[in-house]
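This is your field. Have a critical look at both lines of this record:
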Amino acid sequence: MELLFSNLPPMRTPFRKFSECFYEQLQIHKGADISVGYITADSLTELKGMVEQNDIHRMNLTIGMHYFEKFTALEYNAALDLNSFLRENHIGQVNLVTTFMYHGKLYSFVNQNGNAQSGIIGSNNLSSIIDSGHRTYESAILVSQQPIVNQLNGFIADLSARSSDVISNIEITEFRNANPLLENHEHVRKISEPDVEAYRNHLSNISFEIPLKGYEVAPRSNLNVFFGEGRRTPNGLIMPRHWYEIELIVPAEIATLPNYPISRTEDAVFNVITDDGWEFSCKVSGQNNKNFRSENDLKILGKWIKGRLENAGVLRVGEPVMQETLVRYGRTSFTLTKLEQSDKWYIDFGVRR
C-alpha cells in the first residue's frame, strides 16, 4: 500500500501525488477500469489523448453524478467523443450511473489478460489526472494486495453492469449553464463589474491588437499547442499537452512597437484585467518580445480565450481552433491596452451581438 497526497503548500509530504501514481500504473499495466463521481471536459480529453498516444488496450469509465446533477454541454460532448473513440477501437466505453448518485472514486488497473493488478481508492475525481490549477487537497491510497484489487475491479464491473448504461444510449437534453474554468483558480482573482467598469474608464492611448492564429497557420502552436508533440515521462509514457495550454506568437511588427512590453525587463511580467472580470499575470519573452503567455500557468490564458470560444458554442473540447472558429465567434484578435497611471493592462476579447 502507498499513501498519495496533493502536496499543496503548506501541506507537503514525502508521498507521491495521485497523478504520478495513476500514470505510472497505467503505463505498467496498459489498461484501466474507472468509476468516479465527477468529470471535467479537459480531463476526458486528456484521457482520450493518453489512450491514443500510448499502447493502452483497455479503458472503461463509469460516471456517477452527472446523470442527476447534469453535465455542461462541453462535458457531455467530451464524454460522447471519448465513448465513440473507445467503442470504435474496441477498447472500452463510457457509462453513466442512472439508478442512484454514485460518489465513489475507484481506479482499477488491469493487464493484457484483463486481470486486476492494482487499484487506487480515495477522494480523487477524474480531474486529478491533470494539473487543473485549483487548490483542492485530495488524498488516496494505492493497493496491490489480492484479493482487494479483484474486489475493487469486481465492484466497478457490477456498478457498470447493474446500475449504469452506456452514455450513447441515454438521451440528455438539459445541461448546466456554467463556465467555471477560472473560478477559484490559483493565480487568478475575480474582479467585480463596478471595478471592471472603473478600469475601462482609465484606458490609455497605448493599445495593441494581438492577432490569434488558427489551425491553418499554427496547427501545433499558439491556440493549438494541444496538438503538438506530447511530453515523455521518465517511465516512457507520452503525456498529451493540456487542452487549455497556449502560448501566442505575436508578429514582430506588433511586438517591437514603442511602449509594447519588453522581454527580459521588469516590464516583461504584468497584471492584466479582462473585460469579463478576471485579473492574472501575463508575460512576454523571446526574441523581439514574440511570446505572449500567462505567467505561472500556461493554462490560465488558454482557459480565458478557449473558454470564451467554448461558451459561445463555436468550439468543442478536443477540436482545433480554426480561423473559421474565430470568425464565428466574432473576433480574430484581442485588444491589449495600458491602463493610465498604472503598470496594469486591460485585455478585451468581447463581442457585440
Remarks:
- The mean pLDDT is 93.
- The longest strand covers residues 203-211.
- The first helix runs from residue 18 to 29.
- Residues 40 and 344 are 32 Å apart (CA to CA).
